[in-house]
Amino acid sequence: MRRHAEQLWLLILLTAGMPYAAPGAPDPAAEPAPWTVLRARAIPDKLPSGAPLAVEIYGKGRPPYLFGGTRLFVYRKNAPERFFADSKLAMQKNAKDARYDSIEIGCWQWFKHVPEATVVRRVDTTGWPPGTYRMVAHVLFYPGPGPRDYRFSGTELELEITVQKKPMEIEQ
Q1: Which ranges of the chain would DSSP assign to H, the alpha helix?
Q2: Domains in the chain, start-ordered, CATH in brackets?
Q3: Any bridge partners for residue 57, and if so which?
Q4: Which residues pair with 152 in a beta bridge?
Q5: Strand 66-75's sheet: what is its strand order?
Q6: Which residues of the chain fall short of a pLDDT of 70?
Q7: What are residue 119's DSSP bridge partners?
Q8: pLDDT of residue 29
């Protein structure tokens, strides 16, 4: 019994100086995000299926990080089910949770590494079923001009695809 008490006392002494964060609390040792501003928006945010979509992405790196590339994708849980069933785009399956299966709708596009940038990605919505989509824009931030030690962050944007109405025909 005495031996267990000594071991417990030693364990308490050894762990007393270790930092502790309550579950869910931000980790004080965690690095800050590599950006100071990151946002994306759909232009327009409501459009008929088949209409061209522009996604504007703005990022400003936290020094020394530089804006360097973007991609667009959507998770199954954030799109109409028919989008995943009917899409001709490649789907990335999530082994643990099908809600996180994803379809990349804008592959990685690389840019000259700059501290701050606004880029516009064009997306073809032909064949997209009506509904609400919550897309994710990933942005890569580099700690310098070369392709090393990048960090990526994401931001979400929402758009609504509507049913395309045909012009009314008037009988004469």
Answers
A1: 2-15, 81-86
A2: 32-162 (2.60.40.3880)
A3: 40, 119
A4: 140
A5: 46-48, 151-162, 131-142, 66-75, 102-114, 91-92
A6: 1-29, 146-147, 163-172
A7: 57
A8: 60
Q: How far apart are CA 149 and CA 61, in angstroms?
A: 14
Structure tokens at 5: 């008490």
Extract the tokens encoding 78.
């954030």
Comparing C-alpha atoms, which of 28, 33, 4, 8 is closest to residue 18? 28
Six token digits for residue 69? 């590339």
pTM: 0.74
Mean pLDDT estimate for the chain = 81
Structure tokens at 101: 């299966």
Sequence-distant (6+) residues with CB within 8 A of 102 are 73, 74, 75, 76, 91, 92, 94
**Residue 5 amino acid letter:** A
Task: Record the tokens describing residue 169, joined without a space.
Answer: 């025909």
